Amino acid sequence: MSREQSLSQPRLEATGIEVVVATRGGERCLLAGLDLRVESGEILGLCGSSGAGKTLTALTLGGLLPPPLRWRAGYIRVAGRLLEPGLVQEWREIRGRGVFVLFQSPGLALNPRLRIGLQIAETLVSAHGLARRPATREAARLLERVGLTAATTRAYPFQLSGGMRQRVLIAIAMGLRPSVVIADEPTTGLDPARRDAILELLRELVADTDAALLMISHDLEALAHLSRRIGVLDAGRLVEIAPTAELFARPRAVATQQLVASLAALRAADDQPVD
Amino acid sequence: MTAERRINALTLAGGVLLALLVTLVVFGGAIAPHDPNQIDLTQRLQAPSLAHPFGTDQLGRCVASRILAGAAMTLSAGVGASLLAFAAGLIIGVGAGLLGGRGDWLLMRLVDVALAFPGLVLALVLAGFLPPSPTSLTFALALAAWPWWARLSRGLAREAATREYVVAARALGLGWPRLLTRYLLPQLWPSLSIALAVRTGGLLAAVAGLSYLGLGAQPPTPEWGRMLEEARVHMGQAPWLMLAPGLALTVAIAACHLFAEGLRDQLAMRRTEPV
């Protein structure tokens, strides 16, 4: 709490974000006036059911919206820069070290034709201007940092499991030391133990680099473990944002009530003895 | 890993033949038993013999020597045209595909117009405008062939750019040169290499065809298509004159197709394995 007050400027500030999709009948609004602030060292959870606009938020904040999607209005302040719709060059400079996006399916996020070590080293060369050899050594160190062996540098992505690939991406994030990390459902398809390990690594990533982490997930339970504040998206609107305890105790928006209720139902079912 | 690298029989056969043809291009003139332009009217229209394995032509020149020396002309014009068209089409197609928008639209309409003409007719007209020489022929064929490459590589590039790991690499802040060489072009290469082998075979036939019409190398320069035309006049008396250039062309075109078929099988085989 004191930290939030001591820092006047948040790491990530998005104000009035509107995203539209161009259709034959004109433009349809998919994100309507999203406002978010994430401080450095903070983990903000963003929850919502499927289709609420979670991935859209990640793509918008990462400057990666593909056409026919279009960022129409609002502004984003990140890494000391002000971004408005229509800018291209600024995004190029910000991606990676400014904003790092951790994608839902790590299997698809790695180049299948490059060995892991080279892939990590290239991002380090590109972001920090490191020479090839130190970058390769750093890649091995980063892999060990996330609980993989240095030998993983020689592996191709298809030789790794889903959890290992997500670790590789977190290793890349640790190497880049971005100001803002946006994690879009980083634990999809992982078993509970692996999921917790990845969440723990994300927590360490934030602790190590003092990054601002926007954690996007439909898994309210995972968010509750990780974040002190949680926002809820519904149909392209941020319907509620509150400290975690308060959100569970007094959910105000309908969408929040539904999410909290379904989680409670799951927990109740867990407590029942299984035949 | 090692099993899938095995080269199959078709690729091997095509490769060996192609290597042989390259040797001919480089050393053909040197290993010819006779001077390919040595006229000896006392020896005209001789049937194949030990001294002249493919006989002699209407001016008493050794046909075998002319085939060997002519390889350089026919093959370098065909391969040159193919590579020129490939390079131009690839740059324009990938550029248009990644650029998108109006530039893409304009370039592709240009390609549509160019593709509306039958390629060989277009090359014929272009070569007719230029002074008759092998260089003109090469450029005329390349000018007629590039739109096909532009269309193909545009489609492939657009598909390649939507792959999630390309988006992820952009999110990592990798620059365009690296994205292009490591993430995009390697995806195009399997399809392009097969097409290149096939199209080169086609252009070899086109070179011979236009030379037959008198548009390429001028007499007395030995050239396979030209030799076919000269043989036509004497078909009744000396049918073997057709045999050598016909056979040489067939072997060259077959080599390209064998190589393409082999590559296709190999790449298809690899694709069925988990990647």
UniProtKB/TrEMBL annotation, chain A:
| Top EC group | translocase
Q: Any idea which UniProt keywords this protein has?
A: ATP-binding, Cell membrane, Membrane, Nucleotide-binding, Transport
* Catalytic activity, EC: 7.4.2.9
Question: What is the protein's major site of localization?
Answer: membrane
Q: Does the keyword Metal-binding apply?
A: no
Q: What is the name attached to this protein's record?
A: ABC-type dipeptide transporter
List the top taxonomic levels of the source: Bacteria, Pseudomonadati, Pseudomonadota, Gammaproteobacteria, Chromatiales
* Sequence similarity: Belongs to the ABC transporter superfamily.
Record-annotated ABC transporter domain positions = 12-260
Spell out the molecular function terms from Gene Ontology.
Answer: ATP binding
Q: Which reaction does it catalyse?
A: a dipeptide(out) + ATP + H2O = a dipeptide(in) + ADP + phosphate + H(+)
Q: Which Gene3D superfamilies match?
A: P-loop containing nucleotide triphosphate hydrolases
TrEMBL record, chain B:
Tell me which PANTHER family the record gives: OLIGOPEPTIDE TRANSPORT SYSTEM PERMEASE PROTEIN APPC, PEPTIDE ABC TRANSPORTER PERMEASE PROTEIN
The signal peptide stretch is: none
Q: How does it sit in the membrane?
A: Multi-pass membrane protein
Q: Where is this chain's protein located in or outside the cell?
A: Cell membrane
Please list the residue ranges annotated as the ABC transmembrane type-1 domain.
71-260
Name the protein family.
Belongs to the binding-protein-dependent transport system permease family.
For this entry, the protein name equals ABC transporter permease
Transmembrane segment boundaries: 12-32, 75-98, 110-130, 191-217, 238-260
Principal localisation: membrane
This protein's source sits in the domain of life called: Bacteria
| Recorded coiled-coil stretches | none
Q: Which organism is it from?
A: Thioalkalicoccus limnaeus
Q: Which UniProt keywords apply?
A: Cell membrane, Membrane, Transmembrane, Transmembrane helix, Transport
